[in-house]
């Protein structure tokens, strides 16, 4: 089948590449000329494990092509995936400028039947807007004879495991009001459905809302466990033990119950906010979602509060090491990463920062600059002479570090562990002053 993905970012590039891997012919389109030039030269603009080899293989075998020309890419494609960004507007609602812009371009260029698929995360009723915009363009061209369908097909992949998630999805959600289109979508996805994974066909609004509900549910679990972790710290309970205690209940389960420094990334914060806005517009109160967001905002500030409690409000003269800048391991994505707020909070108070991340340093440097921050390629070098280490991302190589080496190079052996990576008792025995999340009563 011939496919075109419009928007070649984390979602569009992975989608296009995985479809090509299954033998489909794919055009990936982006308005970012630099990005397309890189991809044409075999340079992958993002870090995603396994992606580079897969892009290279499919490009060499002629199934995966890159262009800035939508008209060229869509000419022979039946399926047009819209995978552009939907960032938050100032009021928290989803900015649909890119999605609507793409719809307009499709309307200008469409010459025969197409299935237009919204893979971007978009609020309920966006499918209708996309249809309307395309129709307006067809009216202008006096080509209302051209037929098309608009489908919602939200994406659930996780950055850092995007290929695996796309190739082996838990489920595929398809929102359509046309039975035949639903069947064509099922056929398109059939190579990914070998292990009894489900295709859930539903109406468009339900599919659109499913994506927001899923991300909000996951964000709710994170804020919930973070709130419980505060009760643990205040009471002497240990969040790790409580987590095991509740997670082993099959009604609750273990995933997404890790206390930490709050959720970040390009999806959870914006999707919770956008769902609140949608609900408010519909007149539906959102007390749970409001609290999820408030708890998260507070949690992102927790580590700076802990540092201030120990060293005071004026941090000039202190240098802190940061391990982990990306919002989670195995990605270079820094959008809404808690590290941004934490580092800015410390620098504002006069601290100097030695920052390390295995992958995200160049992205971080663009966002954080150099003021007060030195970036290190080696995580132990970042520790030399520092007052304390703040661990912000649970990259594998921070899990079992050489603690003896750390004790030797740090000025004072103090760790603020935002991801509960180490055992508080062992850390104390080794001579560290160790602060973590929801396990401090046990220290
Ligand atoms: P991204 O910012 O990485 O990529 C978006 C791309 O679209 C950019 O390369 C941009 O240049 C391009 N673009 C913008 N306007 C365009 C246009 N008119 N024509 C062609 N290209 C255009 O975004 P992303 O992280 O891939 O997210 C895309 C959508 O998928 C968002 O709605 C997001 O919420 C959703 N989503 C993201 C993830 C994730 O983990 N990143 C997961 C699931 C869903």
TrEMBL record:
Substrate binds at residues 156-159, 211, 256-260, 264, 328. GO terms for molecular function: NAD binding; UDP-glucose 6-dehydrogenase activity. It holds the Pfam family UDPG_MGDP_dh_C. InterPro entries: 6-PGluconate_DH-like_C_sf, NAD(P)-bd_dom_sf, UDP-Glc/GDP-Man, UDP-Glc/GDP-Man_DH_C, UDP-Glc/GDP-Man_DH_C_sf, UDP-Glc/GDP-Man_DH_dimer, UDP-Glc/GDP-Man_DH_N, UDPglc_DH_bac. Its EC number is 1.1.1.22. Residues 321-424 form the UDP-glucose/GDP-mannose dehydrogenase C-terminal domain. SMART domains: UDPG_MGDP_dh_C (SM00984). Transmembrane segments: none annotated. Keywords: NAD, Oxidoreductase. The keyword Oxidoreductase applies. The keyword Oxidoreductase applies. NAD(+) binds at residues 30, 35, 86, 121, 159, 270, 335. It catalyses: UDP-alpha-D-glucose + 2 NAD(+) + H2O = UDP-alpha-D-glucuronate + 2 NADH + 3 H(+). One of its GO terms (biological process) is polysaccharide biosynthetic process. PANTHER family: UDP-GLUCOSE 6-DEHYDROGENASE TUAD (PTHR43750:SF3). NCBIfam families: NDP-sugDHase. Belongs to the UDP-glucose/GDP-mannose dehydrogenase family. Catalyzes the conversion of UDP-glucose into UDP-glucuronate, one of the precursors of teichuronic acid. This is UDP-glucose 6-dehydrogenase. It comes from Desulforamulus aquiferis.
């Amino acid at each position: 089948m011939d496919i075109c993905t419009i928007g070649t970012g984390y979602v569009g590039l992975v989608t296009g590449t995985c479809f090509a891997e299954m033998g489909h012919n794919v055009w990936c389109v982006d308005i970012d000329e630099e990005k397309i030039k890189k991809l044409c030269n075999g340079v992958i603009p993002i870090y995603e494990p396994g992606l580079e080899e897969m892009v290279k293989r499919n490009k060499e075998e002629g199934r995966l092509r890159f262009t800035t020309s939508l008209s060229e890419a869509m000419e022979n494609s039946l399926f047009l995936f819209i995978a552009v960004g939907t960032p938050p507007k100032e009021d928290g609602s989803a900015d649909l400028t890119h999605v609507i812009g793409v719809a307009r371009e499709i309307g200008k260029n469409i010459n025969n039947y197409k299935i237009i698929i919204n893979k971007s995360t978009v609020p309920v009723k966006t499918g209708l807007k996309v249809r309307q915009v395309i129709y307006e363009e067809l009216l202008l061209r006096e080509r209302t004879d051209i037929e098309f369908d608009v489908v919602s097909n939200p994406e659930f992949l996780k950055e850092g495991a995007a290929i695996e998630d796309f190739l082996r999805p838990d489920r595929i959600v398809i929102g359509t009001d046309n039975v035949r289109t639903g069947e064509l979508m099922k056929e398109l996805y059939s190579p990914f459905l070998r292990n009894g994974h489900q295709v859930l066909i539903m109406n468009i609004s339900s599919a659109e809302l499913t994506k927001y509900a899923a991300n909000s549910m996951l964000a709710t679990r994170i804020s919930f466990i973070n709130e419980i972790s505060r009760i643990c710290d205040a009471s002497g309970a240990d969040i790790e033990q409580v987590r095991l205690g509740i997670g082993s209940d099959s009604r609750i389960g273990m995933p997404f119950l890790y206390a930490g420094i709050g959720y970040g990334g390009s999806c959870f914060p914006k999707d919770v906010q956008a769902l609140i806005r949608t609900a408010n517009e519909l007149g539906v109160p959102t007390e749970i979602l409001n609290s999820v967001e408030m708890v998260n905002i507070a949690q992102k500030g927790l580590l700076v509060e802990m540092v201030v409690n120990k060293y005071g409000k004026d941090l000039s003269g202190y240098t802190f090491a940061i391990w982990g800048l990306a919002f989670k391991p195995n990605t270079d994505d820094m959008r809404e990463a808690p590290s941004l707020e934490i580092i800015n909070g410390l620098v504002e108070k006069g601290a100097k920062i030695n920052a390390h991340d295995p992958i995200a340093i160049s992205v971080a440097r663009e966002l954080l600059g150099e003021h007060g921050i030195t970036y290190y390629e080696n995580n132990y070098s970042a520790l030399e002479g520092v007052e304390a280490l703040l661990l912000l991302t649970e990259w594998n190589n921070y899990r079992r570090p050489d603690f003896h080496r750390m004790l030797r190079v740090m000025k004072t052996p103090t760790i603020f562990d935002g991801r509960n990576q180490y055992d508080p008792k062992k850390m104390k025995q080794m001579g560290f002053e160790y602060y973590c999340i929801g396990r401090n009563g046990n220290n």
